[in-house]
Amino acid sequence: MENVKARGLVLLGCGKMGSAMLKGWLAGGLPPGSVTVLDPHPSDWLRSTSVHLNTDLPKDPAIVLVAVKPQMMGDALPKLQALGNGTTLFLSVAAGITLATYETVLGADTPVVRAMPNTPAAVGRGITAIIGNAKAGAADLDLAEALLSAVGQVVRLEGEAQMDAVTAVSGSGPAYVFHLIEALAAAGVEQGLSPELAMQLAKATVGGSGQLAEESDEDPAQLRVNVTSPGGTTAAALAVLMDEETGFPALLSKAVKAAADRSKELAG
Ligand SMILES: NC(=O)C1=CN([C@@H]2O[C@H](COP(=O)(O)OP(=O)(O)OC[C@H]3O[C@@H](n4cnc5c(N)ncnc54)[C@H](OP(=O)(O)O)[C@@H]3O)[C@@H](O)[C@H]2O)C=CC1
Ligand SMILES: O=C(O)[C@@H]1CCC=N1
User: Fold this and answer.
1) Residue 95 in contact with ligand 2 by CB distance below 6 A
2) What is the DSSP letter of 192?
3) Nearest-atom index, ligand 1, CA of 266
4) How confident is the model over 181-229, as pLDDT tens digits?
5) Are strands 35-38 and 9-12 parallel, antiparallel or unpaired?
6) Is the pLDDT of residue 268 over 80?
7) What is the DSSP secondary structure assignment for residue 169, as one 8-state letter?
8) CA-CA to 96 of 20 to 30 Å: which in 90, 169, 177, 259?
9) How many other C-beta atoms are found inside a 10 Å radius of the C-beta of residue 33?
């Protein structure tokens, strides 16, 4: 991180994902003066920080983080061509955009790390998977990992082909969990609870269960069994949720496949 503090970090695109990561880094002590953000419509939050906003780029930043939508890449990436083929590491979080695409625009001598983070990075609880191109050496991967570990866990992939599945599980995954919270709260309202109480119960249940799953020595299957008294209420609910044709596994399998397929399509 000292490298990033000294040479600077450029963030291209500060929307939902870029701002989630930037929030995590600023909260973790990255000086705002070492960050330059390029974004056409900065949010109020971004304006309230002391980062360099839409100014000239530093000559030799340690890292350029690319966090624009895949569809915007054609417009956005050429702006950074001058930083290619040098010692600046490009770190991309864009779904579906391959390492080869970056090499085509920035030059094959550009070190590039492709990453798939998720929005819990905003509270230091993200998880990011990374894979580098041939030019990205051990020091580049270590730098990417050091930066990303400031906002959560980091895992290294064995091959770029794994990225579509990772995107479908952990990149998009928070949306599935938020939807579970919405649906659980709505079901509680149907059973007579107030919307406020139902939402409080749903959020705390998902948050607490996630933490228990991460911290417990028991695996999630055993933790599920621990909740399920024989002939009790949980067993009645699980009979619905574990139905082979209409239950969670069948539904999530279809949802995750749809996301992975879309990730492949975005690669063009
Ligand atoms: N959201 C998520 O949970 C995750 C997203 N990602 C990836 O992160 C990337 C960004 O996604 P997300 O944050 O959701 O999208 P957003 O639309 O919220 O953010 C993209 C930002 O880039 C800005 N932008 C558009 N064009 C340019 C440009 N030419 N130069 C600089 N900035 C530009 C947009 O401005 P404006 O809105 O004004 O056009 C916007 O602020 C995507 O590639 C996505 O695949 C990866 C993991 C998780
Ligand atoms: O929905 C998307 O395409 C991005 C990638 C993963 C999460 N959000």
Assistant:
1) yes
2) T
3) 45
4) 999 999 999 999 999 999 999 999 999 999 999 999 999 999 999 999 9
5) parallel
6) no
7) I
8) 177
9) 11
Ligand 1 atom closest to the CA of 12, numbered from 1: 31
Whether residue 73 has pLDDT greater than 90: no
For ligand 1, atom 42, the nearest C-alpha belongs to 69
Residue with the smallest CA separation from ligand 1 atom 29 is 76
Centre of ligand 2 from the C-alpha of residue 127, in Å? 14
Helix axis angle, 220-227 relative to 195-215, nearest 10°?
Answer: 130
74-124 pLDDT, tens digit each: 888 888 888 987 899 999 999 989 999 999 999 989 999 999 999 998 888
Cβ of residue 171 lying under 6 Å from some atom of ligand 2: yes
Between these two residues, 79 and 15, which has the higher pLDDT value?
15
Segment (H or E) for 206? helix 195-215
Global confidence as pTM: 0.93
HSE-up (13 A, CA, CB side) for residue 154: 17
* Domains identified in the chain and CATH numbers: 2-162 (3.40.50.720), 173-266 (1.10.3730.10)
67 alpha carbon, closest ligand: 1
- Across the strands, what pairs with 90? 64, 112
ipTM of the shown complex: 0.97
Nearest protein Cα to ligand 2, atom 1:
172
For residues 118 and 86, give the distance between their C-alpha atoms in angstroms, rounded to a whole number: 28
